[in-house]
Amino acid sequence: MRLKVKNILYMIFAMFVNIYRIRPVVCNRYCFIMTHDTSEYGNVGAMKKYILEQDKDIEYIDITKNDYKINTNLKQLGILIKFFF
């Protein structure tokens, strides 16, 4: 059952990636998805650190494994929706 849910989430993620390929790229906006290793020494953490060293004037959001949990915090959901659109 858990594998099916994971596959469904990957398919939803792929659908959003394909939809957003149509939109123009915003050069100073990043989304870091850290599903396994949230430390600054992991692959995504190292990339985030490098990008922040190159340009301090960027907009970014971190998505971690804890963000996948069902959350009723509408403010956080609103921030995510605003960021992606």
Can you characterise this structure?
- The mean pLDDT is about 75.
- This protein has about 80 residues and is an alpha+beta fold.
- It is built from 3 helices and 2 strands.
- It is globular, with a radius of gyration of 14 Å.
- It has one domain.
- A two-stranded parallel ribbon has the order 1-2.
- Helix content is about 50%, strand content about 15%.
Q: What's the story with the biggest beta sheet?
A: 2 strands, parallel
Helix and strand composition category: alpha+beta
Q: What proportion strand? A: 5-15%
- Gap between N and C termini, in Å? 31 Å
Task: List descriptors.
85 residues, two-stranded parallel ribbon, 3 helices, 2 strands
Topology:
Layout: H1 2-20, E1 29-34, H2 43-54, E2 59-64, H3 74-84
Parallel strand pairs: 1-2
Short description:
Helices cover 49% and strands 14% of the residues. The chain has three helices and two strands, in the order αβαβα. β1 (29-34), α2 and β2 (59-64) form a beta-alpha-beta unit.
